[in-house]
Design a protein that fits this description.
The structure is a homodimer.
Chain A (H helix, E strand, L loop, with lengths): L6 H21 L15 E2 L5 E2 L2 H11 L11 E5 L14 E4 L1 H10 L1 H25 L1 H12 L3 H8 L1 H19 L4 E8 L2 E14 L2 E5 L10 H9 L3 E5 L6 H16 L7 E3 L8 H6 L4 E7 L2 H10 L4 E5 L5 E4 L5 H13 L11 E5 L12 H15 L3 H8 L5 H9 L6 E3 L18 E6 L2 H6 L14 E7 L2 H15 L4 E4 L3 H14 L3 E3 L33 H4 L2 E9 L1
Parallel strand pairs in A: 7-8, 7-10, 8-9, 10-11, 12-13, 12-17, 13-16, 15-16, 17-18
Antiparallel strand pairs in A: 1-2, 3-4, 5-6, 6-19, 14-15
Helix pairs in contact in A: 1-4, 1-7, 2-5, 4-7, 4-9, 5-6, 6-7, 7-8, 12-13, 17-18
């Protein structure tokens, strides 16, 4: 597609998808237009759109390496290269470094036309961007893998179709909220025997300004797309400031977005990249610029709190750190529970914001379908389940991926100092990338007696986030105590996820009430192929926005409603 | 109705009204369930609900005066009386003063049951509260009149049915946003030849905590109800801190709300009053309490900015001050324009946040259906229109109401020092209340040469808000200059309203583009019975939320979406 894209063409192609997305967020039933099987890609689909096969994706990625990544955006004052693959290969990609005094004004120029296009045309352009990204999912998978350290299959699924789903979901919410008010209305107020009062009113969704997306290292596309597409779909220009270790997936995204915008007759500068120099701190500079009116951020609590405090001119959406808990009270599927938890602890070396950290287990043990199990037995059986899951090196590598940065490795290596080690970490040789740092998770035993956690962090290492493959098996005096610790942890530290296993209606009620009152998302008795650390777009909320781990959720009305305002013009009719 | 109210009774009675409100906010057509004609009240309506006649309303108001206003809320540590009627009558009402260490915990106790009731039951209770308030509109009118200084008819309409409309509108938005996610869903994800993954999910709208409503002096109910009802309908408890000069209308509201909550089986402490001592500064104390998670505020820019900066634990919705502009370029109904503006400047002594302040008129005059008019002619003709409108003292009193507080009077008296007086203010004797301070508005001439307003406030008094019956007739070098000044004023000072008169498509486009880019609500060429300073619930947005005069609008999705969060619980199916 090199010829201009008309709105009619885009609408014909994408409006049915938007309608399905709108239906999905209403019913919360399973739905996705983005296949998650790698073999679904390659050749042309029913609509004639070509996608890259696995081999073509690999080739396209190789083409990107070792050269400058050209973006024809205004205001470049040099080049920057800051990425290192966690798998040890040389990326060698250089990106234009922005002169923001030139770039920001250029980004504003196209906003009136983008605003005037209206919510549907904007949604259609966003869906075309997503469709082109989808077609290149295998190429994107390599870029995500070699910046985040995710294993290929996860980089493909989470960085490809699942990220695209989250982007599309944001577009659907943005469309729904902008169109809940009609574009125009006639208003006739009766006046008894006199003529009625009559007005014609028009309503226009207007953008806030330039939106800033501050990307993260671990999920550059999955965590980046919701904010990017929510802001773009509501009429804002979007400046993408990637994490310096994970530029390529978002640079490629920006390139595709600019290409589609230009073809559809809009200013490509509505989307631009702000790749920074090492240690430049560009996010801090951009975040307080008056032109920046919306910020989406995923990362540390410290910088998230800084943004919420200092970027007062902007609407700030943050996903920060939390301490995720699983309450283990009882189960009627002991092995299923252990296997499910083992997977959750292992996936991507525990480097997900949703990975459980604290496993709260009654000191006196639990009732199970395999008979009563003591605290020590549960911990030992869980350790064995992890070892069994990761026993084969090739399979372990494909599940664990690589350690994303030296900080995670340091925390992992320091973990045995935090308590008795129930499961030690081991290095796993990667079959394809000998320089990758692959490690199995560690489980540390801890005492959950009330006096320890009521005394504060120093006595209870499990009260602080230990991001990476470190979890704590915390011996609790009772399930009621476990729920109290859960409440305290959510309230003080936040939680992206909570899990619980119980066959007791009373215990279930206690945990559920704690999650409702402290505002955290709860998964109960998961066994089999669904894990506490995974959520599905269009159905599951990612985070709640109501505890300290995040001030927003993916995705709800609140995620989009303050990205635009409605301006009314009224005239006598 | 003294027996318990069942949900079924409430739903049967109020669900049709809610559905009509939902339809109205979708179409923006004219609608209201609250009659604005005073004679519509008294006796029983079709549903058998009794309302107070004008005489009964007067009697009920007289009953309230000169005594303690009993509220059975916990944590009262004394009594306070801070009100003075702008009409000079003695109110003498004492309110319980709260011990917030007792009151705040008591308010939280009922929240889980209120949450569990769900969005529809909460909406029905809110509608019952509004219906009982509506039935007492004549009583409320007196309370609004004798605290705000509004004339009786305005106090009745704006403080009664129009305020109730805005409250209902907020309930409708809250209901729509909470129910866009279903209460429960089944999720089935195909797994090729394997069994599908299946989950049952429940979704619960959970409140943020206690919401604080900080009332204002001029529109205690109209500006108070949207936040109160939006927060209550989304499951929060609501603490109402009235302006010390306008307690009674909100105290009565709280009493009705508590009565309905109790009858419907909920904890009446979900709504409570926090009447303060004179100069106590209670809002500042409450606003930063950790229990307070939502704040609605109408008042000065200084305190609104303070809240936005310091109440970081809360979602803060503010309506502050602005400088409202009318651009006068040309008209095909010169007399209609003058009469319309004269009314807008006079209504409630210009003490509305929506009253125009700056009238921007080309120095070389304007084209009209009555021939070309010079700047001086336009100003003189407008002054004459105001004098004609207010020529009869009784009619003038009924339109002007009374000056609400000494600050407004001081500004009015200082106005002649700001420039040449085009229209002088005169005192109007009130036929019923000899001690009322009633004044006609003043119009001051000013020079709008670019050098003055580009130089800053000192040279151009019209760049600052002068709240009250003071407006500036600003001589501009051109309409284009007027639009530039309009833009600058909105951007720097904010605007709740913008008006414009023009017969030129080019000028109209310029003004409209300025309002879209600077985010302000625009009324074009209003003549006849619709005024720039009035908005209708369910159709018009009050403020935009996108310029410095307010960070929220009444009412849109953004006004409700962050008052609650959605908590999901998922279980294997």
């Amino acid at each position: 597609m090199t010829a201009g894209l008309t709105t009619a063409q885009l609408t014909e192609q994408h409006r049915p998808t938007l309608d399905q997305a709108l239906e999905a967020i209403r019913t919360r039933a399973y739905w996705s237009p983005h296949p998650e099987h790698p073999k679904a890609y390659g050749g042309a689909d029913a609509s004639g759109r070509e996608s890259l096969s696995p081999a073509e994706g690999q080739a396209a990625f190789d083409e990107l390496r070792g050269r400058r990544f050209e973006l024809d955006q205004p205001g470049a004052d040099g080049w920057t290269a800051t990425e290192t693959s966690p798998y040890g290969i040389e990326l060698g990609v250089e990106y234009p470094h922005p002169d923001i005094e030139v770039l920001l004004p250029a980004m504003r120029a196209g906003m009136p036309a983008w605003r005037d296009a209206g919510p549907e045309a904007r949604a259609m352009v966003c869906l075309e961007i997503l469709a082109r990204i989808s077609a290149r999912s295998h190429e994107f998978a390599h870029t995500v893998m070699h910046t985040s350290g995710q294993a290929y299959m996860m980089a493909f699924q989470a960085g490809g179709p699942h990220a695209q789903d989250r982007g599309l979901e944001a577009v659907a919410y943005a469309f729904a909220e902008q169109t809940r008010t009609p574009a125009a209305a006639e208003w006739t107020k009766p006046q008894g025997k006199r003529d009625p009062l009559r007005l014609r009113k028009t309503f226009t969704a207007v953008p806030r300004g330039i939106a800033l997306v501050i990307g993260c290292n671990t999920f550059p596309t999955w965590n980046g797309y919701p904010g990017l597409f929510a802001s773009l779909a509501t009429g804002n220009a979007v400046l993408v400031k990637p994490h310096p270790r994970a530029v390529l997936p978002l640079a490629l995204t920006v390139r595709v977005a600019r290409e589609v915008l230009r073809e559809a007759g809009f200013d490509p500068n509505l989307v631009a990249l702000a790749a920074e120099q090492q240690d430049e701190g560009l996010a801090k500079v951009l975040a307080v610029r008056p032109e920046i009116r919306v910020i989406d951020y995923t990362g540390s609590t410290a910088f998230g709190d800084w943004l919420e405090t200092h970027a007062r001119q902007a609407q700030v959406f943050t996903e920060k750190a939390g301490v995720n808990t699983v309450v283990i009270d009882s189960t009627d599927d002991y092995q299923g529970m252990l296997d499910n938890l083992a997977f959750s602890l292992s996936l991507y070396c525990g480097q997900m914001c949703t990975t459980p950290q604290n496993l709260l287990i009654p000191r006196d043990g639990i009732a199970t379908d395999a008979g009563p199990k003591s605290y020590d037995e549960v911990v030992a059986d869980l350790a064995a389940a992890v070892e069994r899951l990761l026993g084969d090196d090739a399979r372990a590598s494909a599940l664990l991926g690589a350690i994303v940065n030296p900080g995670v490795k340091e925390r992992l290596e320091a973990a045995p100092g935090l308590g008795a080690t129930a499961l030690a970490s081991r290095p796993v040789p990667h079959p394809d990338f000998p320089d990758a740092t692959v490690r199995t998770p560690v489980i540390v035993k801890a005492d959950g007696a009330r006096k320890f956690w009521e005394a504060g962090d120093a006595e209870a290492p499990y009260l602080s986030e230990c991001f990476g493959p470190v979890s704590f098996a915390v011996a609790m005096d009772s399930t009621a105590d476990a729920v109290d610790l859960l409440r305290r942890t959510i309230r003080d530290k936040g939680a992206m996820t909570v899990g619980a296993y119980t066959t007791s209606a009373d215990a279930e009620r206690l945990v559920e009430e704690a999650c409702l009152e402290e505002c955290a998302q709860l998964s109960l008795n998961l066994t089999g192929g669904i894990y506490v650390n995974q959520t599905a777009a269009f159905s599951d909320f990612h985070g709640s926005g109501g505890n300290p781990s995040a001030n927003a959720t993916l995705c709800d009305g609140a995620f989009v409603t303050s990205r635009f305002r409605m301006v009314e013009v009224r005239r006598p009719l």
